[in-house]
Amino acid sequence: MGDIGTQPTPERALHIRPAGMDALLKPVHRWVWADAHRRAHKLLRFAETEADGGRDLTRAAELTRDALLRRLYLRHASDELRHADMFRKRGRTMLASLSRRGAGVEANWLAPGERGLDDLNVDHENDDTLLAFLHLSERAAAMRFAVYREVLAGDPDTRAVFETILRDEAFHMNYTRKQLERVSPRKHGVRLWMARLHRVGKLYLRFAAAFAGVMGALILGLQYFVVLPFFALAAKHAERRARVPSGWTSVASRSFSFRSQY
Ligand SMILES: [Fe+2]
Ligand SMILES: [Fe+2]
């Protein structure tokens, strides 16, 4: 069989270098991964995403009529489930060795793991649209994991986990591209652009939701700390001007009547 990306090429992972936003955000990633508690919790979160991806790929293998793709999807699914296992084990080992303390902010939107097929409904896709989406997703994951491998120099055990997983991600990235070219020789470029637009749309929605959350908290904070004190001051001022004595007041001076309550 010629090179249609059906065999892993471990050396490819060694050459994956972070690019674009991932390279620019390297100092941020370094900060995110610096805290051991956050690191452990992030690994456990990554384990969930990888396991989800594995389940989606098993479904994709059930749905495809292409025997080669079925074989590759099943292999891919078992890789993702193995990654889930590796992240879970490493996360639990780290948590067990750390003192009990809150995880703090995981910053998942800054340093996400492999998103897999979380943006896609496998049942509604064809082989080519699914492969295009998978290729971009695996490529993004490989770039991100390459950054994590670089910023985790101080934690060789976790770094080794990313190093091993990165080899599989390089294979996933490669085979999805080659298979897309095989099943859609004329339209693979268009499929990739459509998948890119889909991802940009999803990215915008994610950003908009996060932005709305931050703005909502900011506006509520401003109302509470800046606007409300003015109302409190105005109420005090009005109270002082009305000169209404506070608390219980004597009624001895009032005229007494059996006809009225007061
Ligand atoms: Fe993975
Ligand atoms: Fe993957």
Q: The CATH topology, please? A: Ferritin
Q: Name the CATH superfamily assignment.
A: Ferritin, core subunit, four-helix bundle
What small-molecule ligands were found? fe (ii) ion
Identify the overall geometry: elongated
Rg calc: 29 Å
Number of domains: 1
Please give the CATH class: Mainly Alpha
Q: Helix amount, in percent?
A: over 70%
Quick overview of this protein structure:
This protein has 262 residues and is mainly alpha-helical.
What can you see in these coordinates?
There is one protein chain. The protein is an all-alpha fold and 262 residues long. The protein has one domain (10-218): Ferritin, core subunit, four-helix bundle (Ferritin, Up-down Bundle), CATH 1.20.1260.10. 71% of the residues lie in helices and 0% in strands. It has 8 helices and no strands. It has helices at 10-14, 20-24, 26-34, 36-63, 67-97, 127-151, 156-183, 188-242. Helix 4 (36-63) packs antiparallel against helix 5 and helix 6 runs antiparallel to helix 7. The longest helix is centred in the C-terminal third of the chain and has 55 residues, at 188-242. The radius of gyration is 29 Å and the shape is elongated. The site of one fe (ii) ion has 6 residues, from helix 5 and helix 7.
